[in-house]
Amino acid sequence: MGRSARSDTADAHVTPSTVARRELFDLLAEARRVTLVSAPAGSGKTSLLRAWIGDAGLDESAAWVAVERGEEDPKRFWLSVLVALRDTSAGSGAIEPVTPSPDLNAEAIVEGLLGDLAAIEDPLWLVLDDLHELRSGEGLRQLKLLLMRAPAQLRFVLVTRRDLRLGLPRLRIEGDVSEIRAEDLRFSLDEARALFASAGVAVSDSALDLLHERTEGWAAGLRMAALSLAGHPDHDRFAAGFSGSERSVAEYLIDEVLERFPDEVRSLLLRTSVLERVNGALADRLTGGSGGDRILTELEQAGAFVVALDPGRSWFRYHRLFADLLALELRRTASGELPGLHTAAAEWFVDHGHPVEAIRHAQAAGQWGLAARVLSDRWFGIFLDGDWASARELLAAFPAGVLAANPELELVAAADQLTDGSAVAAEQYLARAASGLAAVPADRREQFEVTRATLSLAVARARNDVIAVARGARELLVPAESAAFMPPELGEQLRALALLQLGMAEIWTARREQAEQHLEQAVALARRINRPLLELGARAHLGLTSAQRSPSLGEEQCTQAVELARANGWIEEPFVGVAYVVLGNVNLWRGRLTEAERWLERARRALPGDVEVAPAAGLMLHNSRVLLEIVRGRREEAHTAFRAAQRDDALLTGQTTPLFVRAHMLVTQVLMGDTDRVEHALAALDDPARDTLEMRVALAALRLAQDQPDAAIAALTPVLDDPSAAASDDPTARALDIRYETEALLLGAIALDALRDAGGASRALERALDLAEPDGQLLPFLLFPASELLERHARLGTAHASLTGEILDVLAGSAPTGQTPRAEQPPEPLSTTELRVLRYLPTNLPAPEIASEMFVSVNTIRTHTRHLYSKLNVHTRAQAVERARELGLLAPNPRRR
Q1: What is the per-residue pLDDT across 812-858, written as a single tens digit (0 to 9) for each?
Q2: Which candidate in 80, 95, 436, 466 could, as Cys together with 407 as Cys, close a disulfide (CB 3.0–4.6 Å)?
Q3: Which residues make Cβ contacts (< 8 Å) with residue 820, sequence separation at least 6?
């Protein structure tokens, strides 16, 4: 293989062995006239090309020129190119030698080359390695000329650490350029495993995963790790401690990267190494200089271990190993500057609306007062962003003495305990915070009191004290509207929360019209202030109350809530658990039992395991499970769910439980065979309650269970004689009436049939089908099965033959019409991050843009994508999207609806 004298490049000298990278080999084999290989030091550029040339059998057809460091002599450069080309089989007889002389110039060499190359018939490759080292403008101009005028037989491979101006845009337009970038050169996990194996190093999966993550697939980092591991007795311990401060890595990065930068750039890199991410303005703040944006952009474009985090290239981060090295150098050379750098970073992040990073830097600087003030002001927004883990981490970082002496921090601790499901601990923190009011600065006390009232309201909700919630929410609405002492965004957030809490309380106190009004206001406000978590909660509860009026409306609201949860990675947040319960109920009422079971199982995972935290939502879930298990004929499971529902119901004792909920519980008890308790409960009711439609249904169900059809008819006489007499003027109540009327008419039909009144039974059954048809209500007919009566009614003639057929199908064990079978859930659930990656897969965004959106590396995206492919048992992006839609992890394809 033709080459210049220098061939031991930085990319090659750390290579313990060669790994065949077939995808890149194929790309090189199919490449056009010019192949650009552009990536940072140690990315494996040289190793890749040497391996490919050997694998493809091109040793005699490839001229290799390694540009000398800081090459400024164009004549010397072109003479090395000429010598390398003459050293190939195709060039040895066609290219004439040139005798160096004082009057020989680069232009003459290139013109001579062009003339000689015209006679070559076989393909010839010219590899120009370390091309970024060519500092001669004349040499680069002559190379551009050669690229444009060389015959097609000459193929160029340009290897560089940064892009150069060589007229490539024109060649790209003509389709004559192939490119291999840093992201292409990053080793995959499988390639890293092969590299370690070829080096004779057996490494565990956990150690390999950690090393791959730390190096971000950087070839030199992996190779140095492999070399070091060969003599290390504990591979897992080595992997856990592997970083940019490891000796061989640090020496390489200092020699090949850091020392090559001018002083201004080194200063910026060192001082900004305290940051997880950096932009130009922030860099200027920490260095006291200017031009940070320009420097960072140039470093990113040069592939100098600086990674852009967004398409607009406004935010950047450093490669992990490079960041480790910079931090080590900063501690070694200027450790006294660290507190000041962290403080400056904290102040900048506060000013620009990034509270989590501001607090972390204030804590790193030991500025506990600043950190406490920012967390106290911004904790609500952090929680509403769904970033509970960060809030908890920040709170835990405060020394115990600082926390105990700061009432505002104790409010944050109360919020943290509520998030963790501990209302008792939250109340203790609230009490301690209230006792320390005198320590709160005077200009912050009003905000302190409103925050304490908000958290007290949340404690009341956790305890399901709905009366206290409703009262407290109304009181909060006034200061939330006119709180001039608070930042405007905080006041609007509190108002949205108060509207949500008020609507939730009104649902449970059967004030459905007011609940819908307040929840709709909460949705609108949450959308306007871009608080998706509040919107999610409001939509889920709006779906709950809407479903009582119209299952379709409830389904629509809850479907939107679920989409919102998926978009933000909140698929197991308690608010979305409410939406799951509603969707389970809607499908249950429509007889779609498989769908219902799937949604209720999701609700079980999302709602808190401790029923004391949310007994109202738990009661809905367990009641639905009871009915589902009854319909499926699984008596033991039904009893288990019923005991859980009774426990939840007991927790709500003393609250204003809606009458329809109490009636529902009684009907469920009848279905469970607990008739004695139902008898006593009905006897204890006052006359107005006993005369309601829902309680008459419960009584009729009881009498039929006791084989007293005549008594059942007596209980249902007002409905059987005049259904409109029981109707309400309230649309939502009327929808509930229709459900109970359907059950009443069905029970009446069963009772009349038992009394041999075939005509009366048929008329009552037809009226029940009339009411059930619009919303597809199958559940009453499944809970009180009457297959023979339905079959006979169908033979005699009915206006609802299709609905009757669906009911009979479900009773016989078939799925109703319109139910889409769902695939089984994956055996291993997707992580939150994998779900976030999954939601980008239906888009056209490539991996680098997904990485920018999520503020992670492309390698991280690829790792998570590979893991979710494995869990979904698929091999392509399209298959993953289709499978996820089957599982309900993504919304259905709108084109197929």
Answers
A1: 875 554 444 444 555 566 765 677 788 778 766 778 777 776 666 77
A2: 436
A3: 595
